[in-house]
Specification:
The complex is a heterodimer of chains A (502) and B (248).
Chain A lengths: L8 H9 L2 H24 L3 H17 L1 H14 L3 E5 L2 H14 L4 E5 L2 H6 L1 H7 L3 E4 L2 H9 L15 H12 L7 H18 L2 E4 L3 E3 L4 E6 L3 H5 L5 E7 L3 E2 L2 H15 L7 E5 L13 E7 L23 H5 L1 H6 L10 H10 L19 H5 L6 H14 L5 H14 L2 H14 L4 E2 L2 E2 L6 H5 L12 H15 L5 H21 L1
Parallel strand pairs in A: 1-10, 2-3, 2-4, 4-7, 5-8, 7-10
Antiparallel strand pairs in A: 5-6, 6-9, 11-12
Helix pairs in contact in A: 3-12, 9-10, 15-17
Chain B lengths: L2 E3 L3 H5 L2 H12 L16 H5 L3 H14 L5 E4 L2 H14 L4 H13 E3 H9 L11 E4 L3 H6 L5 H7 L5 E3 L14 H4 L1 H18 L3 E4 L2 H13 L5 E4 H10 L7
Helix pairs in contact in B: 2-13, 5-6, 7-9, 11-12
The chains are: A alpha/beta (502), B alpha/beta (248).
Bound molecules: iron/sulfur cluster.
Iron/sulfur cluster binds next to helix 13 of chain A.
C-alpha cells in the first residue's frame, strides 16, 4: 500500500472533527444510504438467508482460490484476454506503463476502479507523461481536488454541492450553479471529448466469473460502458479475490451488492465483458489486458482470523453503518479504503506490524459493521485480533502496558480488587469537585474532556452484600413453584439441545 | 438450584444500586441469588485492547466463581456478551479452561434475557408514570442478540410512556478504553447521542448496560441536563416497590 500518511490517526481525526462541512456532508449521505439499505433489506423476503448464502459462496471461493483463479485465467486467455499478474502496487504500475508504451498511448480514461487508487496508477501514468482522466463523477471531483477517495463507492462523499460547484467552476473557467444536474451536465460534456481521444480505457472489476473468464462491472453512471467500448485498448485491474465460480453465484451477489450499497434493487448498468472485440461485435477494444493484483491480499490466505477479509465485495455498507465513520469521514483512516473495512484492511495488507498505526483503535467495537455486511465479515472481531497481534508482537505503548499489568495484578485476585476499591475511595476525595470528578489528568484526561465522572459510592456491592442477603432472606420465602419448574425445564431443554448439537 | 449473580466490576464498584435492584426483583419470585465473592472482572478492558494474557488472569476469577452454579445472571449485556462471544476464543489453547468456558456460556444470562426467555415473565406488575426513552447497548443487542427483551418488559409497565430514541442503534461512544484512547471521536458520539435523547423530551433514560449509561450520564452532567439515567432493573424495581434503591 501507499507509504503511510505522515500525520497520526489522532491528528487526522482532530482535523476531520473540526470540519463541520465534512461532518454534515458525510452524515447527510450515509444516512440516506443507510436508510435505503434498511428499506431494501426489509423488503427482501429472505434477507438473512441470502446473506448467509452469499457468505458461503465467498467462503467457498476463497478457500479454493487457486483452483478458481486458474479456471478463470484459462477461460479468459481462451477468450483472447492478455492476463498478467502483479504481486505489488509497483509491479501493477509497471505493467500498466509497459502496455501504454507498447500501444503508444497518450491518454487513459478510467471508470470504476478503486483498486487503481490503492495502486496509485494515476500518479504512475502521469509520471510517465500519460494523461489519466477519471470519468465517474465522484472520482473526477476528487481527481480535480487532488484528494484520495473518502468512501469506497462515493469517493467525494465529504464534499457538499457548493464545494463541488466551486471546484468545477474553476475547471470550466466560468461560474457554475451549485445544482447537481447542471454540474453533472458540465462534466458529461467535458468528458465526452476525453472519451473520444483516449487510447486506453481502464476499469476495475466487481466480480470475475471463473466458469466463463468474464469480468463484471456494476455501475450507475454508464461510464464503464464507454470506457470499455470506445478506446482501442482496455486494461482491467482486479484484486485477486474478486472471483465467483459461476454466473448463478453472481446472481446472489447482484441481489445483495446494490441493495447493501445504496438500497437499489438493481444496479443501473451491469456489464459482463468476456474479451476483446470479435469479428461479429459492433464495438469493443482491439486488445484487452487484465492485471490480477495481490498487493498484500495473499497474506490473508490461510490466516484463521483474517481470511474472511477476502470475502469483501466492497459495497460500503459497513462505512454507512459506522458511527465512527459518520463523524470522521474517510480521510482520517489514512488509506484508500476507509471505515471499518479500511481500518482492518490497512494493517492486514501490511505484514510489518511495526508500521501499523493506531487505526484499529478507532472503533468502539459496536458491531454495526458486521450487522450491515452482506457477507457477514466479523469486522468488530477482527479489530480486536489486530490489537492483539500488535500487543503479542511487542508493539505496545509503555503507558498502556503498565496500565494492563496493573489491571492484571488487581483483577486476578478478589482480595486485591477489594483493597484497590477501598484505596480508590480514599484517593478520590482529593479529586472531588461539586460531587463529581472533573480533573483531566492521566487516563481521566480524554474521558473527562467530555464527561463528569461520578465518584465511587460509600459501599461497593460486595461490601453491602451480607446485609442485603439477610434482608432478602428475612423478607421472602422459598422459591415460587412455577419459577422452579421453568428453571428446571429450561436447563433440561438446553441439555437436550446441546446433545442434539453434538 | 444455585442461581448466582455475576455483578460485573462496574456495577460492583460504581453502580451497586443496579445490581441490588436486580437482586430484590428476583427475590420477589423467591429466587435468592447467590454471590460468590471471588469474581472480579470479565476481562473485557484488557481483551478489547489486545492484552489477552491479562484478560485471562481476570477471566479465571469468573470461571472459578461460577463453576458450581446452575444459572449465572448479570446486569450487563456487554459482560455477558464477553462470556458468550469471546471466552471460547480467549481460552482456545487451554482445553481445561475451554471446557469450563463452554459450561459457563450455556448458563449465563443477561437480566432481561433471563426474565423473558427463561422465566417467561413480561409483566412485573410495575407502575412508573414517566416519559422514558431506551438506549439499546451494542454488545447486548448485537453480540448477545438481546433486542426485544428489554422492550417487552418496559411495554408492560403501567403509566410508562416509551418514546422511541432517534438513531437508537447507534453506539453511544463508550467502547471501554476507546473512550479514553480515542476520546475526541468518542466525545462526538456521546454528544450526538445526548442530542437525540434530548429530542425525545424524555425524563428518564433507561438501558441494560451501566458502561454506556455511565458514559451518557457523564455527558448529560457536563451539559447540565436533568435527565434521570437508570438501569432497567432499577426502573422496574422502583415501579414495583414505589421507591428507589437507597444507597449512598
Ligand atoms: S466489509 Fe462487508 S459491508 Fe464492508 S464493504 Fe466489504 S462487503 Fe461491504
Amino acid at each position: 500500500m501507499r507509504s503511510a500518511d505522515p500525520s497520526t490517526v489522532q491528528e487526522r481525526v482532530r482535523h476531520a472533527l473540526s470540519d463541520e462541512f465534512l461532518r454534515n456532508a458525510v452524515k447527510f449521505t450515509t444516512e440516506r444510504l443507510r436508510a435505503g439499505k434498511q428499506a431494501a433489506s426489509e423488503e427482501h423476503p429472505n434477507w438473512e438467508e441470502w446473506r448467509e448464502r452469499a457468505r458461503q459462496i465467498r467462503l467457498h471461493t476463497i478457500a479454493h482460490l487457486d483452483y478458481y483463479l486458474q479456471e478463470f485465467v484459462e477461460n479468459a486467455r481462451a477468450n483472447g484476454v492478455h492476463v498478467h499478474f502483479a504481486d505489488t502496487a509497483e509491479e501493477a504500475a509497471a505493467l500498466t506503463l509497459e502496455i501504454a508504451r507498447l500501444r503508444g498511448a497518450r491518454s487513459v480514461v478510467k471508470s470504476k476502479s478503486m483498486v487503481s487508487e490503492e495502486l496509485h496508477i494515476n500518479q504512475a501514468l502521469e509520471g510517465a507523461g500519460v494523461e489519466a482522466v477519471e470519468t465517474d463523477l465522484g472520482e473526477y471531483i476528487i481527481q480535480l481536488a487532488k484528494e484520495p477517495p473518502s468512501h469506497i463507492i462515493i469517493p467525494a462523499i465529504h464534499k457538499n454541492r457548493y464545494q463541488i460547484a466551486e471546484l468545477l467552476s474553476k475547471e470550466a473557467g466560468e461560474e457554475l450553479p451549485p445544482d447537481t444536474t447542471a454540474l453533472a451536465g458540465f462534466v458529461r460534456r467535458k468528458l465526452r471529448e476525453k472519451f473520444l481521444e483516449a487510447d486506453i480505457g481502464m476499469t476495475g472489476c466487481n466480480f470475475a466469473i471463473a466458469e466463463s473468464g468474464s469480468i463484471v462491472l456494476f455501475e450507475n453512471e454508464g461510464n464503464a460502458r464507454m470506457v470499455t467500448t470506445v478506446p482501442k485498448t482496455q486494461i482491467t485491474l482486479m484484486g485477486m479475490e474478486r472471483i465467483v465460480p459461476t454466473w448463478a453465484d453472481l446472481e446472489v451477489m447482484a441481489t445483495l451488492l446494490p441493495r447493501s450499497a445504496t438500497g437499489q434493487k438493481l444496479t443501473v448498468y451491469m456489464s459482463g465483458i468476456s474479451g476483446p472485440r470479435r469479428a461479429e461485435d459492433r464495438d469493443g477494444p482491439e486488445q484487452m489486458h487484465l492485471i490480477i493484483v495481490d498487493n498484500g491480499r495473499s497474506l490473508q490466505l490461510g490466516d484463521p482470523h483474517f481470511q474472511e477479509l477476502l470475502n469483501c465485495i466492497r459495497c460500503g455498507a459497513c462505512l454507512n453503518a459506522c458511527p465512527v465513520y459518520r463523524h470522521i469521514g474517510g480521510h482520517a483512516y489514512g488509506s484508500t479504503y476507509s471505515g471499518p473495512i479500511g481500518a482492518v484492511l490497512k494493517p492486514a495488507l501490511n505484514k510489518n506490524v511495526a508500521e501499523w498505526d493506531d487505526i484499529a483503535n478507532a472503533s468502539s467495537l459496536c458491531g454495526a459493521c458486521y450487522e450491515a455486511c452482506p457477507v457477514k465479515i466479523p469486522l468488530h472481531d477482527m479489530l480486536v485480533y489486530l490489537r492483539q497481534r500488535k500487543v503479542e508482537q511487542g508493539e505496545r505503548s509503555r503507558e498502556e502496558s503498565t496500565g494492563m499489568k496493573g489491571f492484571r495484578y488487581v483483577m486476578s485476585s478478589h482480595k486485591r480488587y477489594g483493597r484497590a476499591l477501598r484505596w480508590a475511595r480514599v484517593m478520590q476525595k482529593l479529586l472531588l469537585q461539586d460531587g463529581v470528578i472533573k480533573v483531566r489528568i492521566g487516563p481521566l484526561k480524554g474521558w473527562n474532556s467530555y464527561r463528569h465522572t461520578t465518584p465511587l459510592p460509600k459501599k461497593s456491592f460486595r461490601e453491602g452484600w451480607q446485609a442485603l442477603e439477610q434482608d432478602i432472606q428475612r423478607e421472602h420465602g422459598g422459591m415460587d413453584e412455577r419459577v422452579r419448574e421453568r428453571l428446571r425445564r429450561y436447563l433440561e431443554g438446553q441439555e437436550k439441545g446441546s446433545k442434539g448439537d453434538e | 438450584m444455585k442461581i448466582s449473580l455475576f455483578v460485573t466490576c462496574l456495577c460492583d464498584s460504581l453502580y451497586p444500586r443496579a445490581a441490588e435492584a436486580m437482586v430484590r426483583l428476583l427475590a420477589r419470585y423467591g429466587i435468592a441469588l447467590h454471590f460468590p465473592d471471588v469474581q472480579t472482572c470479565c476481562g473485557q478492558p484488557a481483551f478489547n485492547s489486545g492484552y489477552w494474557q491479562e484478560a485471562k488472569a481476570s477471566a479465571h476469577t469468573i470461571l472459578e466463581a461460577f463453576e458450581e452454579s446452575d444459572y449465572v445472571l448479570s446486569p450487563s449485556g456487554s459482560c455477558t456478551g464477553m462470556i458468550h462471544h469471546y471466552y471460547p476464543e480467549l481460552f482456545a489453547d487451554d482445553p481445561v479452561m475451554l471446557e469450563k468456558a463452554f459450561r459457563l456460556q450455556k448458563k449465563t444470562f443477561e437480566f432481561s434475557q433471563f426474565m423473558i426467555r427463561v422465566l417467561g415473565i413480561q409483566d412485573i406488575g410495575a407502575t412508573f408514570p414517566h416519559k422514558v426513552t431506551y438506549h439499546p447497548s451494542c454488545h447486548g443487542s448485537r453480540l448477545l442478540g438481546v433486542k426485544e427483551e428489554p422492550l417487552l418488559l418496559l411495554e408492560q409497565v403501567k403509566g410508562l410512556e416509551l418514546v422511541p430514541l432517534p438513531f437508537a442503534e447507534d453506539c453511544c461512544g463508550f467502547g471501554g478504553t476507546f473512550a479514553v484512547k480515542m476520546s475526541d471521536i468518542s466525545g462526538a458520539m456521546v454528544s450526538e447521542k445526548v442530542d437525540h435523547i434530548l429530542e425525545t423530551e424524555a425524563q428518564v433514560l433507561v438501558g441494560t448496560d451501566m458502561g454506556c449509561l455511565m458514559n451518557i450520564a457523564g455527558h448529560l452532567h457536563v451539559r447540565k441536563e436533568p435527565i434521570r439515567v437508570m438501569h432497567l432493573a432499577e426502573l422496574l424495581y422502583e415501579g414495583v416497590s414505589g421507591h428507589a434503591i437507597s444507597r449512598s
